[in-house]
Write a structure and sequence with these properties.
The chain has 222 residues and is of the alpha/beta class. The chain contains eight helices and eight strands. A six-stranded mixed β-sheet has the order 1-8-7-2-6-3, sandwiched between helices. It is globular, with a radius of gyration of 17 Å. The N and C termini lie far apart (45 Å).
Length: 222
Amino acid sequence: MTTADVADVRGLPAPSPGVVYWLVSFLLVFPLFRLVFRGRTTGNARVPMHGPLVVVANHGSHLDPPLLGHALGRPVAFMAKAELFRIPLLGRLIRACGAYPVNRGASDREAIRTATAKLQEGWAIGVFLDGTRQPDGRVNTPMPGAALLAARSGAPLLPVAIVNSHRALGSGQSVPRLVPLHLRIGDPVPPPASRRKPDLEATTRELQRRINAMLDQGSVNS
């Protein structure tokens, strides 16, 4: 992607969410987040509302994707297994909420290409820095995928700390605990200077540092 292409993409308006997205937000996600889990979000003014954006967060539970996808003021797309899109109702629902399909067994390179294409359409893409849920809810072993996406697309990275989701519905829990949840949004981080490994690793470490620092601040409700 050339410098001119990056400038053009950054000026794209964020894709407009459809009716299903708003129905899921107001009838499911927000009642659960605001009322059941006494959820709060701080730092929304830091969210770039136009152009591609890589939203980077810690990962503590299955609650994280819908919370991150509906709490930033613009839709956030996540990759999902391609077979889920073949389930009639579920497929339409997750597609309307911004999910995009990745084939089972797809290579990391294919997944990166698919996500980059969404960024070039002006989407915000959600990435959990560790890739998998962490028992303590922190960023422990960050992967460079988010930094690579930003380097390929020129998109800024937005660090978000999801506080307490690992306590609410962590690995091995079948019944949620009604602890207060808090999404704390940090300042955007510029994309790496290049796709070289040292640049990707430096940006990844900075994202890890910022997210864990926000987690250490705890929840406004705790």
